[in-house]
Amino acid sequence: MGESAMITAVHGGGGGGGSCGLLLHILRGRWFSVFASFLIMAGAGATYLFGIYSKEIKATLGYDQTTLNLLGFFKDLGANVGVLSGLLAEVTPTWFVLLVGSAMNFAGYFMIWLAVAGKIAKPKLWHMCVYICIGANSQNFANTGALVTCVKNFPESRGVMLGLLKGFVGLSGAVMTQLYLAIYGHDSKSLILLIAWLPAALSVVFVYTVRTMKVERQPNELNVFYQFLYVSIILALFLMAMTIAQKQVVFPHWAYDASATICCFLLFVPLFIAIREELVLWDLKKQPPSELKIEKPVEVELKEKEITNPEPEEKNRSVSCWTSICNKPTRGDDYTILQALLSLDMIILFVATLFGLGSSLTAVDNLGQIGESLGYPQRTVSSFVSLVSIYNYFGRVFAGFVSESLLVKYKMPRTLMMTIVLLLSSFGYLIIAFPFPGSLYIASIIIGFAFGAQLILLFAIISELFGLKYYSTLFNCGQLASPIGSYILNVKITGMLYDRQALDELAKKGLTRSAVKELVCIGTQCYRNSFAILAGGTFFGALISLVLVMRTRKFYGSDIYKKFRESVDADERN
Q1: What's the rounded Cα separation, in Å, for the pair 41 and 481?
Q2: What is each CA distance from 404 to 199, 238, 399, 459, 495, in whole angstroms?
Q3: CA–CA dist 410, 258 (Å, integer)
Q4: What is the pLDDT of residues 172-227, one digit of tens each?
Q5: CA gap 456, 162 in Å, rounded
Q6: How far apart are CA 534 and CA 73, in angstroms?
Q7: Burial of 380 from C-beta contacts in 10 A (0-12 / 13-18 / 19+)
Q8: What's the pLDDT score for residue 289?
């Protein structure tokens, strides 16, 4: 397309302009893409609802706690092994990644619903493990499609962008709880059905909206993100108020309908902000041609960049794979996948994440049984899950916005904030190990907050240390420690210690395992030893992360966003 044709297209000339041109501009704009990503991410946190419907699986299918925790491990495995989605995103467009995730989400959770609802014969355990692994793995496709795309579209605001997007994932548990109460009532089996169709539908609706775009500098960019933040905080506070109110008072069905309606309205408020910003950009593009910055075809831009920014001579030479791995670039430059995975920085992150996120996943998965063992009613246990979801959100936006602010103003390393968060979460596990009246409320808040903050800091640190070129794959690889930690800490330690304690209680009553369908432990001793181990492991992870703080303090003391500003300036000059 010639330059004159591109100007005509911008102005909507040739009879195709007017309202149609404006509508197309909005739907294809960067800010509308951000709004679409918010909604996709708001449906991508179904794994956090496992604490609500896991008891239904346990009772319906006759599982003991070790078996249920094994199912929880496969959920965590699917949720955190996103290498496939990352590699797929390297070679296919974003819309294809979102469609694959949508299909996997529906297939996995719909099969679980059929099993729990008795629509099919009782599946074998490995079938259930496959179903939940596939369903949970779908959220990686949503993350890769929406989150990675937005980070590449707003590289200088990556901490803020990560905090907002993963914040909506953190809220998704509470959002879906309100929707399922309004649509299905207290039927937790139907919650699984909602998890099956709603996230899949969101990805399909916005499949062509989310895509990588040319980075542009917008003076009020940070202010717009803060407006999104304020809306999301109002949504979080509303969800928290509803969670507390629904615990104290029995709501009639119309009250649940009203709560879900308000929730949906707040989710769509960012749409109005996005439309306003796109209208501003539309007005700028309608300036006289002499004032316009003429856009050049992508092919021309790429060729010019190759001419003005040629690859260093040594990069053009053919070098062996091992030489490339050993000759790592400086921190902040683009690492290859193998260079990043085999670097000492990534290994330290892996170990800290294994204990940190592995313990957090264990706590979240066992929250329903922890509440039951401490004598809380089922309605209260559901509120604990919602509290974790809500404070998960606060942890994510706090880690995103505050760490970005501390980094820019005071050069505080994000790695140091990760150490602080790990220390905080270890304190939350000690509260569960040695409970007191109402302690589970405090523990739910701490664990939810720390869990959310760890994820954002992990994703941001990977993008900063290893570059954005292979970020789709690297950020998914960074999560691999989570399911490994979850398997060791959840299945092999927490589940087995719980079952051993429950069997001891049965023996004291003169009963055997075959005498009861569901193996249940009641009392403070059920999780004491296991959560003391989690607290110690997370504290060790915090100490390990201090090594990374020392290794990266010089890097974070420099201007890590300088190259992105220089790139935008070069594009504007061209």
Answers
A1: 22
A2: 30, 26, 8, 13, 38
A3: 45
A4: 888 988 998 898 887 778 889 999 999 999 999 998 889 888 877 677 888 999 99
A5: 6
A6: 16
A7: middle
A8: 53
| Alpha helix ranges (H) inside 143-252 | 149-153, 158-184, 188-205, 221-248
Phi, psi of 175 (to 5 degrees): -60, -50
Token pair recorded at residue 333: 């430059």
Q: What is the pTM of this model?
A: 0.76
Cβ neighbours of 23 (radius 10 Å): 10
Please give, one letter per residue, the 3-state secondary structure of 403-453: HHHHHHHHCCCHHHHHHHHHHHHHHHHHHHHCCCCCHHHHHHHHHHHHHHH
d(Cα 175, Cα 295) in Å, to the nearest integer?
Answer: 41
Q: Can you list the residues of the chain whose pLDDT is less than 50?
A: 1-16, 290-319, 321
Quote the CA–CA distance of 253 and 261 in Å, as a whole number.
Answer: 12
Give which of 66, 79, 63 is closest to 361, Cα–Cα.
Answer: 79
Specify the amino acid at residue 542.
A
Whose CA is closest to 406, among 159, 82, 137?
Answer: 159
- Please, what is the Cα angle at 78 between 73 and 79, to 5 degrees? 95
Alpha-carbon distance 370 to 498, whole Å?
A: 10
Could you give the angle at the alpha carbon of 356 between the alpha carbons of 354 and 357, nearest 5°?
A: 75
| Core vs surface per residue 394-429: b (16+ CB within 10 A) or e | bbbbbbbbebbebbeeeebbbbbbbbebbbbbbbbb
Gyration radius from the chain CA atoms: 25
Q: Which of 280, 363, 286, 365 is nearest to 49 (CA)?
A: 365
Three-class secondary structure of residue 93 per DSSP = coil
pLDDT of residue 455: 86
